[in-house]
Every structure is written in structure tokens, then in C-alpha cells.
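Run log, item B.
One chain of 321 residues. Sequence copied directly from the ordering sheet:
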Amino acid sequence: MRVETIMDEYKSKIMESKCVFFIRHSNFKNYSSLINENVIGIHYNGDKEVRFIDLDSRWNKPYVRTSINYFKHLSEHGGIVFAKYKVLSANGESIQKVVIGLVEKNTPIEEQYFNFDEDGKVERDYVKYLKYIPLIDNFSYAEAPVLAIFGGRSTLAKYSTKDIFYQIVKETILLGNRVQGTKDLIHPKCLEQLCVEWLRRFGTARLGSDLDYCYIGVGSSYPDIDIAGRMIDNRKLFAQVTFSSVTDISWKVDTLLTYKSSSSNNLLVMFCCINNDENIPNSDVIYLNIVDVINDFILNDRENILNDFVGIQNVKWNLIK
């Protein structure tokens, strides 16, 4: 059956789903059958005690309890799953795959065990699992690269209607809907690079010059600043980037001020959610609102750049107030 046919058949259940669950299967030994059998599973480093957990009991490890509660929710209510597999087959072959599927309501939680050789000893590992219907059997991150950021180190993560992950997976990828562009669609880990692109294109209007180059880039290990570079007019620029408002950024401003120099005209810039006309912590810092940054891309017909930062192309952008 074609993927499109499967999705049409289950469209009403997809629309009813209020959550999308990310689940990671990594470092699983001999578990390639999980992929072939269309199941998602949880285990914790071969901890056989998980097998005997009463699903209604209070487990003393919070991350285990959270995952079990998510599994219970999926079992009882159903939902969309974004399943990432990085497993080893029986012959040691590495298998990597991403599947988007649907767990139907009242799907039973089942148990399976696997034997594997650990330091010359045969061990038995237990897995709680749920069966799902594959909607997209081999999803490519090239379709929405930003999705690779989500999940963090979690085994299981839950995303609801207000989350970017939910909107991208359910509304655009599965249902083909166009979503309304907002600042909340920009993942915090993408925000710094968006501000760099703004400096390169639109810096002159607000700062008197565009950015020439960065020498401390996005994702660097510098604890004090997010961006350091030189403007085309030869001034140095030091910037912090945050979604925080005025009440949360005082310590960031104090850090930024350590780059002030009486012998130079360095630019100190705070990209945040306040404007220069608000009650700001220090007048030596230029405050640029994230909303204004996004609006400049819209005003200059560069929504395609915003779409790439969101991770999808099916976004409707209007000026944000």
C-alpha cells in the first residue's frame, strides 16, 4: 500500500492526535527486528528490573517513570510517533532509520526479550514495546533539517500543539497544512545564526554598517558572547542572542559590557525581546528585538531564509507585531 493511501486512511486519527512523541533507539544490540516489525521500545541498559515494573507504580528513577507514563499515554490514547533508530543487527551491521508512524488508541504494551553476548556472558534484555502503523517509512532529515535538533538526549520526548516539532511533523509533513509564521517557530539553537544572517544583510539600517565576517561563530565554546566579528566599516561587534525579555537579561548585559573599550568604538549588541525605548539595563548596549529581525526578512521578501531556519517551506509569513 502506498504511503499516501495509508495516510488518507488514517487522516482522521492523525488530525485527532494532540501530541507527537519523539523516541530514540540507540546502542540497541540485535534489535534490528524492532524496525522490521514496526514497533517502538524502551529499555535502560539491560536493566531487567524494568520488566517487573507495575506501570501504575511510582518508579524511583524519574526518567524511567516519565518514559513509562508516555508509553501508557500512547497505549491508551494513541498518537503520532517520530521514531529514530540507530541499532546493530545480529551480524554487527549498523542500521539508521527514521520513521513517522501512528499508534492507535488502546494499543497494548507488550514485552519482548533479546539474548546478547556481553563480555562472554549471554545476557537477556527486556523491552517494553508498542506497535505502530508506518506513515512515512524512511523519513529523510533533508526534508526538514531542523528536526534533527529535537529530542536532545531523551529516550522519549513529548511535544504538544504549541511546540514547533508538533507543528512541523503533524501539520505540515503529515497533513500538508500551511502554518502561520511566528518567532516561536524559530528554534533557539537556530536563532544565533539567523541574527548573523540579519547582520550581513540588514545591519546598515540599524548599526550603520553590515557585518563583514565572524571570528567567533555560532555554537562556539565562548561562555561570554554568542557572536564576535568585524563590520564592513572596521568596527568590532560583540553580541548576545536570547529570546529572554528585560527581566531575564541583566547578567547577559553585564557580561557583554566587559567587551566595552574606551579606546575603540566597539558595537555591543543584545538580540532579545525588548526595544531600545524600553527600560533597558544599560545604554551602552544596542538592543535589537528578535521580532524586528524576523520582520526585516519579511519586508525584504526573504521569507525563504526564514523557512529554511524553521525547517519547512510551507509557512505563511505576515509582519509580526
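Observations after the first pass:
- The radius of gyration is 24 Å.
- The mean pLDDT is 83.
Flagged for discussion on Thursday.
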